[in-house]
Amino acid sequence: MKRSILISFVLLGATLLSACSSAASRGTSWPGLTADAKNAYLANGQYVYAARLSDGSKAWQYSVSNGSFYSAPLITPDGQLIVGSIGTDQGLYSLDPSTGTQKWVFSGAKDRWIASPLATSDTIYAPNNDGSLYALKLATGQLLWSLSIGHPLWSAPVTDGKLIFLTSLDHFLYAIDPQSQKIVWKTDLGGSAAGSPTFSADNMTLYVGSFASKVFAINAADGSIHWKMNTNEWVWSNPSVNGSNIYVTDINGQVYSLDASSGQNSWPSVIPDGPITGSPLLTTDGVVVATESGSVYSLDHNGKALWSTALGGKIYTAPVASGNLVLVAPLGAQYLLYAVNEKDGSMLPWHFDGK
């Protein structure tokens, strides 16, 4: 078992959860990354950056006093960019993705924002490390209600349009009714869960991994377990679903392709060059994964390596797609952001350094 990643996460987690001021310096936590057709949005240390995908130039940067950013920024249906702070300000910020101008800030949480929120047409559901799920008015950030789960929340919620589904470090997957603000059911995952559940195509089944070194298929209606499958190590990331295939990674560095109906693994020996914490990125040809060793791999639907590219540093953040580009944000590399071609892994001539 590759224990190095456990040490890394203990150190990084301590940084995230401590109150020390060093959390505000760049590079003390792994970056958060998202993108649209024009820009990549990177939450990294003191700053939130927008980098133009056309040439890697900086469109804008945003920072606040005593602020530090970790979670992947969220682009909302109405065009806001939402990102939470792990600094002492503990704010959840709405920015204009075109300019970086602040629209509103919610300051009612008691701890840091480790997870990205979920946005619907009119509401933001934001899980905080204080153990509460906060429901905010999308347009203004006004608090509508909050629900205490009682344990740290490190993953983004998901919804089927009726219920909100959320994992917790207390080992449970929760189903929450946003109308009554009550827990409808909860299912024990056997270990802490830092990744979000992922829906099947029909929204009837949730796939989720945990630190019990297991992947579960769970009935979204009542929380009953359809099947569970053992992995070699902790599952930190979200499963990725492509039809009848469920792609999962673990921190031993193994990539699994599971049958949606049975959980059977058809890739028993696909292990790239290091531990994997980010979710597999679905592509036309298969999946792309990134490793703690600083490499990016493309695998076809049979688990065969199509290409690999070494970027350096350590990669904990899931790769993100924009058009035919795969965007990667390593920790401790020469640059903050790299872009590679999805088809062959060749690096674009630009790299974003935050300047």
Give a brief description:
This protein has one helix at about 5-15; strands at about 30-35, 40-45, 45-50, 60, 75, 80-85, 90-95, 100-105, 120, 125, 130-135, 145-150, 160, 165, 170-175, 180-190, 200, 205-210, 215-220, 225-230, 240, 245-250, 255-260, 280, 285-290, 295-300, 305-310, 320, 325-330, 335-340, 345-350. With about 350 residues, it is mostly beta strands. Residues about 10-25 have low confidence and may be disordered.
Overview of this protein structure:
The structure is a single chain. With 355 residues, this protein is mainly beta. Helix content is 4%, strand content 41%. The protein contains 1 helix and 31 strands. The strands form 8 sheets. A 4-stranded antiparallel β-sheet has the order 1-2-3-4, with no helix packed on it. The radius of gyration is 19 Å and the shape is globular. It starts with a helix and ends with a strand. The relative contact order is 0.11. Residues 10-27 have low confidence and may be disordered.
